[in-house]
Design brief:
alpha/beta, single chain, 4 helices
């Protein structure tokens, strides 16, 4: 409902990915690349870096567990959904 309310003009599909592919030999980034997904909202820095390295724009939710290390230029650190919304609108 968040996306329908804030982005009614977009044709999008939401994919929730947790450990559902665990053990199947596919990383989240490879799945996203195969599905031609261009944007990811993530709180795990390792997944964010992996996806960003494949050219996927990644909004990394700022959490205590993802503070260390350098981030790829395709990663945009955000504090909350309002910041995600602002970044998406800025980059339309």
């Amino acid at each position: 409902s968040f996306f329908q309310k804030n982005f009614p003009e977009l044709n999008y599909e939401l994919i929730f990915s947790g450990d559902i592919f665990n053990g199947q030999g596919k990383t989240k980034s490879k799945i996203f690349k195969k599905l031609k997904i261009k944007t990811l909202i993530e709180d795990n820095k390792n997944y964010a870096i992996d996806c960003a390295n494949l050219g996927i724009i990644t909004y990394l939710l700022d959490k205590p567990w993802n503070q260390n290390g350098n981030l790829n230029s395709n990663i945009i650190r955000v504090k909350n959904w309002n910041e995600i919304l602002g970044e998406i609108n800025k980059n339309k």
